[in-house]
Structure formats: C-alpha cells, structure tokens
Amino acid sequence: xxxxxxxxxxxxxxxxxxxxxxxxxxxxxxxxxxxxxxxxxxxxxxxxxxxxxxxxxxxxxxxxxxxxxxxxxxxxxxxxxxxxxxxxxxxxxxxxxxxxxxxxxxxxxxxxxxxxxxxxxxxxxxxxxxxxxxxxxxxxxxxxxxxxxxxxxxxxxxxxxxxxxxxxxxxxxxxxxxxxxxxxxxxxxxxxxxxxxxxxxxxxxxxxxxxxxxxxxxxxxxxxxxxxxxxxxxxxxxxxxxxxxxxxxxxxxxxxxxxxxxxxxxxxxxxxxxxxxxxxxxxxxxxxxxxxxxxxxxxxxxxxxxxxxxxxxxxxxxxxxxxxxxxxxxxxxxxxxx
Length: 338
Prior knowledge:
Layout: H1 2-26, H2 31-37, H3 45-58, H4 63-77, H5 84-87, E1 99-106, H6 114-124, E2 128-132, H7 139-144, E3 149-153, E4 156-160, E5 164-172, E6 177-186, E7 191-198, H8 203-206, H9 213-216, H10 220-244, E8 250-255, H11 263-268, E9 273-274, H12 275-279, E10 305-309, E11 313-320, E12 331-337
C-alpha cells in the first residue's frame, strides 16, 4: 500500500504539471485545452486531498508531494491572486493624484435581480459605471442614473459623474457585431479615453462538445473554427483600441469573456495593467453565478470581467462584488493618475 500511495502521489503531481502546461502554454490554441480553460478547476484538488489522507496513514514520505499538489491547484491552476506589490509599497509610491473609481458589470439583460446589482453599485459609490448586455428597456436603470452623464449604444451603457461623450464604435466582421465602444471622459485635470468592451462568449463553441469528445472528437472541428473567429475578433478589438486611443490616459473595462491565462488574452492585452492582477486578493471569479448543470448557483469559477489601465494610471485597489443579481458579478477598481 505504501508503494502505491507514493507512486500515485507522484503521478498526480505530474498530471497537474501537464494540466498547468495546457492551461497556461496551450490554452485556446487547441480545442481540448480551450475546453479546460473554461471548466471548473477546483475539482483537480480532490485526488491530492484523498492521497494526502492515505499518505498520512501509509506513506509519510508522500505527504509533501501531496501538499505541493494541493498548493499547485489552489494557487496557479485556480488563479489565486495576491497583491504583493501593494503590500510592499512604500510611502514614495503615494502619488496623491486624481483618483477615479471605475465599476463594470455585464447585467445579463437585467436578469435575474437587477435591483440587487444597483444596490451593490450604490454601496461601492463609483465615479464611472459601464455595463454590457444593458439594452435600453430598463426603467430602473434610467431612473437610477437620471442625474449622471450617460452614453448608450446598443447593449453598451456608460454613466459618469463627469462629462462623457461617445467617440467611436467597433464593429467586427468575425461575428458581425459591435464589440466595443469608445467614450471620452472630461475629468477635472485631463481627458480620458474609456473603452467599454464585450467580446464574444466561448460558450457557443463549447456547446458543440460532449462527454465523449476527448475520444470521438465530436464537436472538435466546430470548436476549432469558433476559436479562429474568437481570435480574429480579439485581434481586431485590440487594433481598434490602439488606432483610437491617441495619447490620452486610457481605461478599458467590461466582459472580455476570457480569463487572464487564456492565450487570447495573453496575445492581445499585453501592455495594459490588469487591475485585479495588481491589487486584487483571492480568485476574483465573476462568472457564472447561475446554476450550471451539476454546479450550484452562486459559485462562479471564472474571472472573465476585467478592468485594464495604461501606464498613466496606478492601480490602488480592485474587488469583485458578491451579489448574484446577474450571471456576472461586478468588478470595481480605484485608479490614480500618475
């Protein structure tokens, strides 16, 4: 028994390293690792927990191996974020400049409980709010932001305590849809380019797969074609930002529909600070909040919603909301102009 526990512990650790490589190095370049990218990751810890119990009873030498396995899952695989740079910041890092609190949420067409979303927005008291899937048919939304500067286009909504205007709309051929809008905010000290983004969901491609796909490859070709279109849209979205941002301080917020370890994110959003990566604590999961198959509701496992900033800003804080009034939880960040 001792020999089997030790061997299985090392095999499990090796498997976790392979999983890590698929998630971080391959990701959406292959249909199988793409499916892994968007699947829950906490179940990967179960074998290590079982083997840890067995190793205490039968193989003390395997305890450390299983502890490393657990840390691998709970840390990088699940996307644990610790704001180490914030913890080690010195007094010289305090800029005492203009601060802007930004909040973003995909409100999922105001379902299931938009009132709770607005209540949480009120508790955070932001300066700028952007929403996606916020089609113009909510009296509650219009009433709440009646005194704000508001910009609307299709599903995109921006409300600001400072003057704001629509500058441009990004329409992309990959899915024949508007994927981003550009707004100009007139802050007391400068003008800021603010992009409200909603990239195409991976779900439509993933639905082509079933439990037999790893063996039969059923649906793999459909997903592979979908990945090409997603990559095309992501590249066109970054090009739109670079073409239109100019020299003004730039912020991008919204539903990117990709986690940070996704190859699509890595290939297209380098050069921008990710607010949660810098100042967030924990996992920051924002989707999905509704029940998914056997997965209980109110327990998201993906961080698809992001706030990005260029080097004109210093990220002071970033948190993800807790309300489940939408299929996405909101994300909010305090940013300071350098």
